[in-house]
Amino acid sequence: MTLANKLTLGRMALVPVMLAVYYMRFPGAHLVACALFILAALTDLIDGHIARSRGQITDFGKFMDPIADKLLVVGMLIALCGDGKVHPMIVFVIIAREFAVSGVRLVAASGNAHRVIAASWLGKVKTNVQIAAVILLLLDNWPFAYLGIAMDQIAVWTALVFTAWSGVDYIVKNWQFIGENR
Prior knowledge:
By secondary structure, the protein is mainly α.
């Protein structure tokens, strides 16, 4: 197993730890959860860089890296939704997009050609905007709250737009893989 793949699995393992800390409710728990979230998000950048620079891009990595990102972002969005920091319909749209894209990925991987579809640049932008939104929500919109700018909500709505856009783009570009398995 490559180092990049180990980092991806490590990111997945951090998710329940991060959520447990978030729910502990000790003073500063949200800051510790935010630090764990940022650490996990950074592993996404690091594992991709390592895989590309070492020529170790694997089908496992192309398949599991987006799943690790989904677990990280969706896990924390559900927790934030439970605290009323993000609207449930926004979380629903994000989760629905992830299910739809994952479904296309699974169909493509199980088809005659056994294709593994890597994330597109638009999907990567979507993930980064979602990560920024979650961080702002965890930090209670710091430092923008002092300026009277609802940057956390701007980031959430921007994430929603990129989520929908990238989902439609992904399905349209990969529709032929769905047709192969009829």
